[in-house]
Amino acid sequence: MTMPRLSARACSPGPQYHPVMGALAPVPRICGREAEIGALGEALGRVASGGPAFVLVEGEAGIGKTCLLAQVLQDARGRGMQVAEGRAEELERTRPFGVLAAAFGCTRSSPDPCRAAIAGLLASQGAGDLGPITVTSDPGLRFRVVDAFTDLVEELALAGPVLIGLDDLQWADPSSLLTVGALARRSTGMPVGVIGCVRPTSMRIWPAVCAGPCTVRPASGWPGPGRPPCRSPST
Predict the structure, then answer these.
(1) Structure pTM?
(2) ∠ CA(16), CA(65), CA(158), 5° rounding?
(3) If you average pLDDT over residues 72-100, what whole number do you get?
(4) Calpha distance 197→190 (Å, rounded)
(5) Are 135 and 145 in contact, with CB atoms under 8 Å apart?
């Protein structure tokens, strides 16, 4: 699937992000993005029909990616989908699983046992004088957290279609990107969608997140060497 390159134009202020799955204030309809909205609408249709969809929206800073993401998340809520959303922060690039923990509201005080368990894994403590065991110091723990996130999404998908919206992925930590890649590989036949927004220069994210059935890119091609080809839903 290809998408015309986003052009620079005024964009309505983006929505307020919440660290839990829930409702947002209404988002004004976007004008002049018919091709992009249509392509993302097709992805929503696949999720609503019981299949996976993984989409990357690529564009320069300030060009309107956040507004586009807000629009598609609102449309997903209108279809009755479960929606989780998060935004990666530049100053938190070393916080493991930061954007996903925020998107799903994974805190130790969460009433959901799955989310509380994930928060517990992220705050694991060593015995005696060993100090804290972190997902960066213990690869085994890191993959336990990856599995816990994928299990959470699979459980949610059993109840109905799930859409995950992730903004500013160029700032995302490696563990979050690893998890998104795992979701892309493990969600075959499940109503799970991931829509991520990223700047064109973020080549480091492609190995982790381009394994999904659908990647949206500018029609003019990747602006640099080494980028993977766009995959269509049939591949």
Answers:
(1) 0.73
(2) 70
(3) 93
(4) 22
(5) yes
Task: Choose which CATH entry (3.40.50.300, 3.20.20.70, 2.60.120.280, 3.40.190.10) describes domain 34-209.
Answer: 3.40.50.300
Count how many residues are written for the chain.
Answer: 235
Q: Is the dihedral of CA 189, 186, 219, 38 positive or negative?
A: positive
Task: Return the DSSP state at 196.
Answer: E
Contact 166, 195 (CB under 8 A): yes
Contact predicate 65/167, CB 8 Å: yes
How confident is the model over 17-58, as pLDDT tens digits? 333 444 444 444 544 567 777 888 899 999 999 999 988 888
112 burial via Cβ count (<10 Å: 0-12, 13-18, 19+): middle
Coil/strand/helix, residue 83: strand
How does pLDDT run across 183-198, given as a tens digit for each residue?
A: 988 888 899 999 999 8
